[in-house]
Amino acid sequence: EAALPAERPLAGRHVIVTSGPTHEPIDPVRYIANRSSGAQGSAIAAALLRLGARVTFVSGPAEAPPPEGARIVPVETAEQMRMAVEAALPADAAIFAAAVADWRVEGASGSKIKKREGALPDLRLVENPDILARIAGMAVGRPDLVVGFAAETDDVIANATAKRARKGCDWILANDVSPGTGIMGGTENAVTLITRDGSEEWPRMTKRAVAERLAQRLAEALGAGGES
Ligand code: CTP
Ligand code: CA
Question: What is the architecture of the domain spanning 8-107+124-219?
């Protein structure tokens, strides 16, 4: 049955969601990656879809199943993720839940590096593009709402507040992912929403509930008019 328009406040809106880790190859069999199950990203995309949004889901190799009903763009590296996000524009909002590897190996080997006694591979790292900062800094065609995550282990709120300002995004969801919180790889999350105006601590809840609350807030922020 068709939901009432009031229940689908994001109808006509396009939202890009990044999710999962990126894998940066060292050679054909080895890579550098971040820890990320993709659970929070998939839950966010699913919540946006339930509110009627059209969702482009750009995901690295994640454990969590991708959301049904999104346009799914599978990627492996940060550079591929950047290209996929830029190709998906324009969007009304973009949510960056991916755990992007900060560095990649310069001149990754096309053939498998063999171990040799006493000789360690000489890997040079170069910095990956900051996809969130690029999109948040767009002079023309920037999504109305750009949302990042800050997974921290120390000085969570201070680090995340500085990160929001540095990257120029509208909101950051900060979370403490220290071992012992059970958040990495778990079903729950405890986040603080940081905006230009301040911060708001949300109680610990399931990742699905965090996603629903975020999607609601996003719908309120974008307001009416998506279908026009
Ligand atoms: N992000 C991104 N592209 C990158 C790095 C991060 O889009 N190359 C996004 C993440 O998806 C997240 C936010 O930026 O939404 C913050 O990521 P984080 O790793 O916490 O920030 P960094 O600036 O990389 O700082 P650091 O890892 O040193 O804490
Ligand atoms: Ca990082």
Answer: 3-Layer(aba) Sandwich (3.40)
How far does the centroid of ligand 2 lie from the alpha carbon of residue 99, in Å? Answer: 7
Could you confirm whether 34 is annotated as catalytic? Answer: yes
Instruction: Point out the ligand nearest to the CA of residue 163.
Output: 1
Q: How many helices (H) and strands (E) does the chain have?
A: 5, 14
Q: Where are the domains of the chain?
A: 8-107+124-219
CB neighbour list of residue 98: distance below 8 Å, 6 or more residues apart: 18, 19, 20, 21, 22, 36, 41, 58, 59, 60, 81, 131
Task: Kindly write down the DSSP assignment for every residue of 164-191, as one continuous string.
Answer: HHHHT-SEEEEEE--TTS--TTSSEE-E
Q: What is the ipTM of this complex?
A: 0.99
Q: pTM of the full predicted structure?
A: 0.95
| Å from CA of 16 to ligand 2 middle | 19
Q: Report the nearest-CA residue for atom 23 of ligand 1.
A: 163
The residue among 45, 46, 55 whose CA lies nearest residue 14 is: 55
Residue 224: its pLDDT value, please? 66
Q: Which residues of the chain have pLDDT under 50?
A: 228
Q: Which amino acid is at 126?
A: V
Q: Is the CB of 130 under 6 A from ligand 1?
A: yes
